[in-house]
Amino acid sequence: MKMDRRTFIKVSCGISGFLVCPYPDLQASVGSKDKPVIRFGMVTDLHYANRKSSGTRYHKHSMDKLHEAITVFNRSNLDFVIELGDFKDQGENPDRIQTLSFLDEIEHEFKKFKGDRYHVLGNHDMDSLSKADFLAHTENSGKVKGKNYYSFVKKKIKFIVLDANYNEDGSDYDLLFRKDHFDWTKTFIPDHEKLWLEKELNSQYPVVVFVHQLLDYFSSERTDVFVKNAAEVVDILERKNNVLAVFQGHRHQGQYSFRNNIHYFTLKGMIEGTFPENNSFAIVEIDKSLNLSINGFHDCEDKYIAAMAKGGYSALSEEVAVAVLSKIGNVSAIAYSSKLNRIVAACGTSVFYSSDAIDWTEVPNVFVAEPKIIYVPEYDTFVAVAFSTNLVIQTSKDGISWIQRKTPGGISSRCMGLAWSPDLGRLVISVDNNENIITSTDLVTFTVVAPEGLPSRCIALFWSDNQKAFFIAALNSTNVYKSTNGLTFTYSGSIVGNDSRFGSDIGTNGMMIVGVAGTSRMCKSTDGASWVGVNNAQRNMQSVFYHKALKKVMVFTYNGQTYRYLSDNGDSFIEEYFRPDENITGYFNGIYIDRMNALLLGTYTNGSNGRIVIIRKS
For residues 91 and 60, what is the distance between their CA atoms, to the nearest angstrom? Predict the structure, then answer.
């Protein structure tokens, strides 16, 4: 019989970078490029029963469909096969003994796979049965026989099977004794299973999750197919940063979604349609870059999904992607709320927000011009100060709705620097052409302070967690100034050159760096007093960041072309030409987001669309 097998088209996802593998054992286990690390077969929603068809559901035909799938699987050198729930159904007049016979028949066919086999519990698996009945009449390979949720490791990848067939009070779905013991639209993963899941995710290996009912509650307007406490479970998955994908059943039409570097793939139900015209099963391959290839048969479509969707990343290497904002103008600032899992970027006179740094939504006409934005977690508040001749200060709880605050009198210069001290509970704003600073402790009232001796144009303003102090360096001064209270600043050493552009803590080694554009040099210090010049680059230094996942200091320069400099310790830098997009020729501001293991760079180039450059290591 001819397979209605669609041509498998792989989409190129590689952008040159450094192959830095967070899972060294996995990388060592594979050979040539693109060779799969692991291959497994999937089926779901067979609903097998020896009964009449109902609508599009042909219960009897699932036996022949499974036989076809197992035949393909046995010829395909797979590591295991798994069924994602609703393995069987019940008769038109439900009867436990009859239903067990259906289960035994379909399990017998499933056992014909010559390798490891696994089951996921679906809601129909408890039709006229208890959960214990189902587990006693099916068999998982290895040490997980008789378990309704469990994990196993193969080829240095961890697989986690969840059971969402619980009532809100934590009791099992069970129709053996009470026919009203569950409502299939009200499905929960109980507290004890969530605690178990958190522990299982503390793994050195990348993770793939299997579940019957859907977890990607954010993906569709239909609510009856989702686990009711899916948001809690997804939060657990997203916090760990090692989950590659969630494979699901239940929704027979299938679907795909993506959020925070996790792919959610719902396999189409095998029961739909007559055999041999219709069937649905898949072989999944995972390669050394953690890209997933879903090879679909019949009604299941092929899908190639990179380790990060849309951007075309490789999860085992440093990769670069670019998201284009629709507004013409520079990206002047990026901030992030971990509470909301929301990224906010300012572009021209608009604000954009996103949860994944790829898809952005615009909030137009919020600011006068190109603000600097930071997020203050202690107040759950974004603060923005417009870079314009008329100083405008705005705050927002969500990054979408903004409140304009009263601006202190006597200040009409542009915002140059913006920094928050979590230790002092104080915000400091430096301004252009003025020796004053603006400060606030409640993000509502802002006052002007005039520290003695402070130079004007203090653009390099930052808070040092290592030194527990604010540091300021100016465009027209070789001096660095320090403040332990955010109100008074004192001289704290001199740097080489007099055109300071940026300053920052670097990593956890106590080092600080101030960049000097005029002399194309960085100056570093571990005590805030002695500053040593490093890396004379012959280009204007513009921004510096520390990429925690890659453990690299990254300095970006601009002098007609963009270069970046990489260092492990803030001393010996390697120069690279850096142009991730043909329209990016300028310099960057940005933020490192721990939850994403990503450095987000906002491009500052006149006359082009705003762009977000993402440098990530999963």
Answer: 11
- Cα separations in angstroms, 385 against 153, 373, 398, 445, 446: 50, 7, 16, 14, 12
Q: What is the mean pLDDT of residues 449-477?
A: 81
Give the per-residue pLDDT at 8.
26
pTM: 0.52
Q: Count other Cβ atoms within 10 Å, centred on residue 238.
A: 16
Q: Give residue-wise pLDDT tens across range 217-256.
A: 988 667 889 999 999 999 999 888 789 999 999 999 998 8
Q: What is the pLDDT of residue 147?
A: 94
DSSP code at position 133: H
State the pairing for strand pair 361-363/292-298.
unpaired
Phi, psi (degrees; rounded to nearest 5) at 247: -105, 130
- Counting residues of the chain whose pLDDT is more than 70, the rounded percentage is 82
Indicate whether 467 pLDDT > 90: no
**Quick one: DSSP state of residue 559?**
S
Q: Cβ(259)–Cβ(216) under 8 Å?
A: yes
Residue type, 81: V
Cα distance between residue 548 and residue 337, in whole Å: 18
Query: Which of helix, strand or coil describes residue 412?
Result: coil
Contact 207, 255 (CB under 8 A): no
DSSP result, 588-599: EEEEEEGGGTEE
More confident of the two residues 326 and 280? 280
**Rounded-to-integer distance, Cα 333 and Cα 370, Å:** 8
- In this structure, the number of other CB atoms found within 10 A of the CB of residue 419 comes to 20
| pLDDT tens digits, one per residue of 96-118 | 999 999 999 999 999 999 999 99
| Residue listed under structure tokens 């050195």 | 204
The closest alpha carbon to 502, from 468, 475, 539, belongs to 475
**What 3-state class would DSSP assign to 191?**
helix
The pairing of strands 116-119 and 80-83 is: parallel
Q: Which two tokens stand for residue 188?
A: 């929960």
Both tokens assigned to 348? 């021209």
pLDDT band at 414 (very low <50, low <70, confident <90, very high): confident
In Å, how far are 190, 207, 236, 255 from 241, measured between CA atoms? 22, 9, 10, 23
DSSP assignment of 317-344 equals: S-EEEEEEEEEES-EEEEEEETTTTEEE
Q: Read off the DSSP letter of residue 199.
A: H
Q: Please, where are the H alpha helices in 478-562?
A: none
Q: Where does the pLDDT of residue 411 fall: very low under 50, low under 70, confident under 90, or very high at 90 and above?
A: low
Task: Tell me the one-letter amino acid at 48.
Answer: Y
421 - beta bridge partners?
426
d(CA 518, CA 533): 13
Three state DSSP letters for 227-252 = CCCHHHHHHHHHHHCCEEEEEECCCC
